[in-house]
């Protein structure tokens, strides 16, 4: 299935408290720009419609992008996904974390090419571990997400057991090289320093 650039929407989740980092990790300098700018730059060739999901919009005004607060506050990334789906219309929606600096534009096009209207989620799964904040989501998943959040279940992985989900394996993603680096999430000062060395 071919996707045109103008038909896609991406949401970047920047709602975390960055407790382990001690400062907003989305704003960490990485190669001369902030982490969140790096992610946005990789998304721009894929879509003109990029939204930031954040509860601290004052930190990201420099991006000049639409910003939206969580509809269900203090409920983690799953609530961010729910908000992103609620405010968009395109199908599917690219969901991306703000702290994964090695993701590439080619990866997003690859994801979109793997999409099928028969599924609700398209998620990398490396061994036993999902990469839920680097995938595609359908609006069809919204009722289940809302049900999970209302029940107090914030685990994104719980969604994949309840809606049609396609996973991409290490073999599927072999073209992107070292997947440990590719899906690197920066969560603490040590991880930040190690990622800078990889850069």
Which SSEs are present, and which pair or pack?
Blueprint: E1 9-13, E2 29-30, E3 33-34, H1 35-43, E4 49-53, E5 67-68, H2 76-86, E6 93-97, H3 105-114, E7 121-126, E8 129-130, E9 134-137, H4 142-150, H5 156-160, E10 165-168, H6 179-182, H7 189-198
Parallel strand pairs: 1-4, 1-6, 4-5, 7-10
Antiparallel strand pairs: 2-3, 6-9, 7-8, 7-9
Helix pairs in contact: 2-4
Mind explaining what this structure looks like?
This protein is of the alpha/beta class. The protein is 29% helix and 19% strand. The chain is built from seven helices and ten strands. It has helices spanning 35-43, 76-86, 105-114, 142-150, 156-160, 179-182, 189-198; strands at 9-13, 29-30, 33-34, 49-53, 67-68, 93-97, 121-126, 129-130, 134-137, 165-168. Strands 1, 4, 5, 6, 7, 8, 9 and 10 form an eight-stranded mixed β-sheet that branches. Helix 2 packs antiparallel against helix 4 (142-150). The protein is globular.
């Amino acid at each position: 299935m071919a996707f045109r650039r103008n038909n896609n929407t991406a949401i970047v989740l920047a709602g975390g408290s960055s407790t382990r980092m001690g400062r907003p990790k989305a704003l960490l300098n990485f190669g001369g720009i902030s982490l969140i700018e790096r992610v946005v730059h990789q998304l721009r060739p894929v879509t003109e419609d990029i939204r930031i999901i954040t509860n601290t919009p004052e930190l990201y005004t420099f991006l000049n992008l639409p910003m939206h607060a969580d509809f269900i506050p203090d409920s983690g990334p799953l609530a961010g996904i729910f908000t992103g789906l609620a405010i968009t219309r395109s199908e599917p929606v690219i969901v991306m974390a703000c702290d994964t600096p090695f993701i590439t534009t080619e990866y997003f096009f690859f994801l979109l090419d793997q999409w099928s209207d028969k599924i609700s989620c398209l998620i990398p799964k490396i061994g036993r571990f999902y990469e839920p904040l680097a995938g595609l989501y359908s609006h069809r998943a919204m009722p289940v997400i809302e049900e999970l959040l209302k029940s107090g279940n914030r685990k994104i992985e719980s969604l994949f057991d309840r809606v049609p989900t396609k996973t991409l394996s290490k073999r599927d993603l072999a073209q992107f090289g070292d997947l440990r680096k590719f899906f690197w999430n920066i969560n603490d000062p040590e991880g930040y320093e190690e990622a800078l060395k990889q850069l």
